[in-house]
Specification:
The chain is 46% helix and 20% strand. The chain contains eight helices and seven strands. The longest helix has 24 residues. The protein is globular and about 45 Å long. The two termini are 21 Å apart.
Length: 245
């Protein structure tokens, strides 16, 4: 299955996407949390809360948060689910450094650890975690199928995968408004706040190109996952995917 998002790069077509994604998130790290709240009007917190509620039924004790960013989901998981250990991994040291400060301020350093690493080549043994989460990250994978295979590898048998990803509304009423907002307003504000001219143009391009709905479930099944399902939120602008190993 061709994945168009793999061909959408933050800056150019002359370098590997993984390298460019790392560069981009290092660049926008100081503005990332503010832009997340501003872009979604704070609804991103509700989306994470919904995902955590869905995961709670599985009572995970060891969690891997892939593309952890500044740690918002990891912190929410720690507070809500009280797991034994959460490991967050991300390409960007700049994002992780902010995450570490937030975890320390939240007094959660005994539960949450961060490390820099490639999500397509996870530095963990097989069958190590009983839950894996990814929030707004899979569209940035250079090879999405490889990312899913790696997550399947390190997930314990009967473990659960939860992916939160931005998606494109299908409503004929909502979609024009969504396109105006994501293609014009967000890039304009992003350039003002983050000073990265390209990063917030990449955002809507990558959302439009990432597999959505049943296409995403197909990739999960191809990687070995089963019981795959999805739930659309907020007029289809966000989708939560669940799968089991």
């Amino acid at each position: 299955m061709e994945v168009k998002a793999e061909k959408i790069n933050p800056y150019d077509n002359n370098r590997a996407k993984t390298e460019q994604v790392k560069e981009m998130f290092d660049s926008i790290a100081p503005a990332y949390d503010f832009m997340n709240r501003a872009m979604t009007f704070g609804i991103d917190k509700c989306w994470r809360a919904k995902a955590v509620k869905m995961i709670k039924a599985y009572s995970p004790k060891t969690i891997l948060d892939v593309a952890t960013g500044t740690g918002d989901l990891a912190i929410k998981l720690a507070r809500s689910l009280k797991p034994r250990k959460i490991t967050g991994i991300d390409l960007s040291e700049g994002m992780i450094e902010i995450g570490r400060k937030k975890v320390e301020e939240a007094n959660l350093s005994h539960i949450i650890d961060f490390l820099a690493g490639d999500c397509l080549n996870l530095p963990f043994d097989e069958n190590q975690f009983d839950c894996i989460t990814v929030a707004y990250g899979v569209r940035n994978f250079e090879h999405l199928d490889q990312g899913y295979r790696e997550m399947h590898r390190v997930l314990q048998p009967s473990g659960v995968l939860c992916v939160i990803e931005l998606s494109t509304p299908t409503s004929r009423i909502i979609r024009p408004l969504y396109n105006l907002y994501t293609h014009y307003i967000i890039p304009f504000v992003g350039r003002l706040i983050s000073k990265d001219v390209r990063a917030y143009n990449y955002l809507p391009e990558s959302i439009a190109a990432v597999p959505q709905g049943n296409d995403m479930l197909h990739l999960m099944r191809e990687a070995g996952f089963n019981n795959c399902q999805f739930k659309s939120l907020t007029f289809g602008s966000c989708t939560i995917y669940l799968a089991k190993k």
